[in-house]
Write a structure and sequence with these properties.
By secondary structure, the protein is an alpha/beta fold. The chain has 2 domains: 3-280, Mur-like, catalytic domain (UDP-N-acetylmuramoyl-L-alanine:D-glutamate ligase); 289-416, Mur ligase, C-terminal domain (Protein-Tyrosine Phosphatase, Chain A, Alpha-Beta Complex), CATH 3.90.190.20. The protein has helices at residues 3-14, 22-31, 50-63, 92-102, 112-126, 163-166, 170-178, 194-206, 247-265, 272-280, 305-318, 336-344, 365-370, 384-394, 407-416, and strands at residues 40-45, 68-71, 83-85, 88-89, 131-135, 152-155, 186-189, 210-213, 219-222, 227-231, 236-241, 289-292, 296-299, 324-328, 349-352, 378-380, 400-404. The protein has an 8-stranded mixed sheet, with helices on both faces. Strand 9 and strand 10 (227-231) form a beta hairpin. The radius of gyration is 21 Å and the shape is globular.
Length: 418
């Protein structure tokens, strides 16, 4: 088996779609001797920010001297981005070897994400990691990652998403995500809605777990354009450098630091220096990432209404530009109307395109009218490459081209620019 055949095999698994069920992944892991139980873990769920929080926690642990696995999804360009040890992607040789090994045990009910999860757990075991930071794929209760026994569970934020799978009310979605809380464990959360918090705290109470809340047990405050201070469980750290733009990243940093403090309480050697160094050195692609200048070209993976709202609030504070040209594409299961209304409130021109994949949302002029939007400020160009070129051609040297709406769209732009 070579790398091309690995890609073909993974593409075949992807066609199996989404099927939330812990049984197939549990059976596969048991066949392999439960590799996920051979090292410590941190579990990160939430509607927004979970990738950034996971990356920050991993960076803190690395700064503390630990060998750290990091599993996230989706990837932008290369599948190997999902599986890292101390920041380095799984080598091509290891990927080919492990896919060749694991495919022998794969039954027809194992999905793409389940296979990727097992592959990551097996690789982390091979690499003798001290601890792995694991990002939930979708929800929590039936997510393939929910077979681990984490030292700490993190729930970042909760808003409407994936209602077909998780439920149509915030409390239903909260109940799904709260299932990553384990018996006698600790949950660190940035959730603020009272009814949603009540669901999380009830689950924790039933399981004898404690909940640490941002704003009550720890917090962080922005001090300037690029600095913030953290007021934690045991540490107060002032004037830290913000590694990623946006007020929402201050909240994410607070969650990561609090999770690391919990790990320290459980015996891991993590001090204030590791917290500062780890947070400040975090790098995470696709989060207000600048890839060009004159015009300024920025990529952001906001893919729901809450994320787009945070993005729109951040732009005028953290960036300088005259006109905002937005390249927007979205998947079919998102609340497109509310996302586009938020974008339309801040953008001068919007180019609508279609991210790669079968689940993409194909928008029409009629959709724009139905959404109550000024269609004259929009252009619809299905081809991503053509749409990107059009957006750049509309922008002057002092303008910004913002690409957002889907991580799959960002990945396509990055792929074309390689």
């Amino acid at each position: 088996m070579d790398l091309n055949r690995v890609r073909q095999y993974l593409a075949g698994l992807e066609k199996r779609g989404i099927h939330l069920d812990l049984d197939p992944v549990s059976r596969l892991l048991a066949t392999l001797g439960d590799p996920h139980l051979t090292y410590r873990t941190v579990h990160v769920a939430g509607t927004n920010g979970k990738g950034s929080v996971a990356a920050m926690i991993a960076s803190i642990l690395g700064a503390a001297g630990y060998r750290v696995g990091l599993y996230t999804s989706p990837h932008l360009v290369d599948f190997r981005e999902r599986i890292r040890v101390n920041g380095a992607m799984i080598p091509e040789e290891a990927l080919v070897r492990l896919v060749s090994e694991l495919r022998r045990y794969v039954t027809d009910d194992v999905t793409y994400f389940e296979f990727a999860t097992v592959l990551a757990f097996r690789f982390f075991q091979e690499q003798s990691v001290d601890i792995a930071v694991i990002e939930v794929g979708m929800g929590g209760r039936l997510d393939a990652t929910n077979c681990i026994m984490p030292e700490v569970s993190v729930i970042t934020t909760i808003s409407l998403e994936h209602e077909r799978y998780l439920g149509r009310r915030l409390v239903d979605i909260a109940a799904e995500k709260a299932e990553i809380i384990k018996k006698d464990g600790t949950c660190v959360t940035g959730v603020t809605q009272a009814k949603v918090l009540a669901v999380i705290e009830k689950t924790a109470q039933i399981r004898g777990a404690r909940v640490l809340r941002r704003g009550r047990d720890f917090t962080a405050r922005r001090r300037g354009k690029t600095t913030f201070s953290y007021y934690g469980i045991n540490y107060t750290l002032r004037n830290l450098k913000l590694p990623l733009p946006g007020d929402h990243q201050v909240s994410n940093a607070a969650l990561a630091a609090a999770a690391a403090e919990v790990l320290a309480e459980k015996g891991m050697e993590i001090d204030g220096r590791a917290l500062v160094e780890g947070i400040e050195s975090t790098a995470w692609e696709g989060r207000l990432e600048t890839i060009g200048a004159a015009p300024l070209i920025v990529l952001d993976g906001a893919h729901n209404a809450e994320g787009i709202g945070a993005l729109c609030r951040t732009l005028p504070r953290d960036f300088s530009y005259e006109r905002l040209i937005v390249l927007f594409g979205v998947m079919g299961d998102k609340h497109c109307k509310s996302m586009m209304r938020r974008i339309a409130a801040v953008a001068d021109r919007i180019i609508v395109t279609e991210p790669p994949g079968e689940r993409t949302r194909r928008l029409s002029r009629r959709d724009l009218n139905d959404f109550g939007l000024d269609a004259d400020r929009f252009e619809i160009i299905p081809c991503v490459q053509d749409a990107f070129h059009r957006a750049c051609s509309l922008a002057g040297f002092k303008d910004m081209v913002l690409v957002t709406g889907s991580l799959y769209l960002l990945g396509e732009i990055k792929r074309q620019r390689m």
